[in-house]
Amino acid sequence: ANKTLFITGASSGIGAATARAAVAGGWNVALFARSEDKLGVLVDELGDAALALPGDVTDLGALEDAVTRAESHFGGIDAGFANAGRGMKKAGTVEGDADDMRGMVDVNVMGLLWTARAVIPALKKTKGTLILTGSAAGRRHISGSIYGATKWFVHGYAGNMAEEMREWGGRCTVIAPGMVDTPFFDEGKPDKLQPEDVADAVMHAIKADPRAAVREIFLMPQN
Ligand code: NJP
Prior knowledge:
The chain has one domain (4-219): NAD(P)-binding Rossmann-like Domain (Rossmann fold, 3-Layer(aba) Sandwich). The chain is 45% helix and 16% strand. It has helices at 13-24, 36-46, 60-74, 98-126, 146-166, 195-207; strands spanning 4-8, 28-33, 50-54, 79-82, 129-133, 171-177, 216-219. The chain has a seven-stranded parallel β-sheet, with helices on both faces. The chain is globular and about 50 Å long. Residues 8-15, 33-35, 38, 56-58, 83-86, 107, 111, 133, 135-137, 177, 179-180, 182-185 line the site of 5-hydroxy-NICOTINAMIDE-ADENINE-DINUCLEOTIDE PHOSPHATE.
């Protein structure tokens, strides 16, 4: 049977590109994000290998329901990709909008933890792989960046989870991309990775031989 990848932030950018790469590689994909309409368009494109599961990553119950539905629909989950994330409209501990700051931390930190909490019981059954979207901003210090700090959390969590998951045969990978050409950034910068580049890295990690744990992939634009 085909293997199944559960993806959060699947409606756009890196998540959508990874869904396309996975289906092209013979995987099924369970697509979680808030935008039901965008998920519907992606399922129309990808066909029976894709299942739309609308929901918000800050809602643990919604994630648990989605995992249950994906498991019963496809027969199991072999990899989970905790990729949903967002930035702040205006950066700064004092300058940023308070609700905007709270919303970003909720998605990038709690949403990632809820995704892991919901999907790990399914991954235990398959000795599966958990992939997390970190950032180049989570590996170096960028003046005042709270977004970067949320991604430092992701990198710290990934290393600890890699040790924990190893005890039952699971693997954890964190992907740290530099700038990627997605709706995440409004302004046009010329030198960016494409979301397909990040999707390639994700597929490399989940397809690696079980004896090899790809713990981290740091991917930067070359030009
Ligand atoms: O951005 P975008 P990316 N619940 O805006 C979803 C990281 N990153 O692909 O809910 C559930 O195209 C949203 O879906 P929707 C970045 O931090 C990026 O670039 O329908 N889902 C959409 O599918 C993030 O972790 C760059 O609005 C929620 C997706 O998240 C990841 O890459 C560089 C949600 C965002 O797609 C994907 O971002 C880097 C919620 N509450 C790291 N809130 C870069 N682009 O340069 C949002 O180092 N989503």
